[in-house]
Amino acid sequence: MVALDMDDEGLKALVDAFYARVRADGALGPIFNDAIADWTEHLDKLAAFWSSVMLTSGRYKGQPVPAHMKHKDRITPALFDRWLALWAQTTDEMMTPPAAAALQDRAARIAQSLQLALFFRLDDQPIPGPARRNADATDLPQRSVLP
């Protein structure tokens, strides 16, 4: 297979090939196929997204977090790992090594951001208490005593 350039045509071909794999994947396919009504439109939107991310084209006009939030009840961190593995496989096969590495790095950062938006809840975090130290007299603040 000839390695694609990182241009709009190459990114479109990559997106098309990658999402063909996603749609056929046993774990990811059912979620994506249930969520996407018009694959042609969605693939065009995803190609615009990657063009904006990698080529700073400004073509993408969507909001990824609310789009994924609609499907939060079906998305797990393990599915992000599966998505990233398929992305790595597809980019390695279709793109030049530097382009594949850049696409994989960006996808990992985007996945991390989406996971924070979907799964991080501040109320799930322990509430920090005061710092605990073994204090002795030398650790106490010195106070000046005025006459």
Automatic annotation (TrEMBL):
* Gene3D superfamilies on file: Globins
Q: Does the keyword Iron apply?
A: yes
User: Mind listing the GO molecular function terms for this protein?
Assistant: heme binding; metal ion binding; oxygen binding
Source lineage? Bacteria, Pseudomonadati, Pseudomonadota, Alphaproteobacteria, Sphingomonadales
What organism is this sequence from?
A: Sphingobium cloacae
| Stored Pfam families | Bac_globin
Keywords of this entry: Heme, Iron, Metal-binding, Transport
Q: Which InterPro entries match?
A: Globin-like_sf, Globin/Proto, Hemoglobin_trunc
The protein's name: Preprotein translocase subunit TatC
From which domain of life does this come? Bacteria
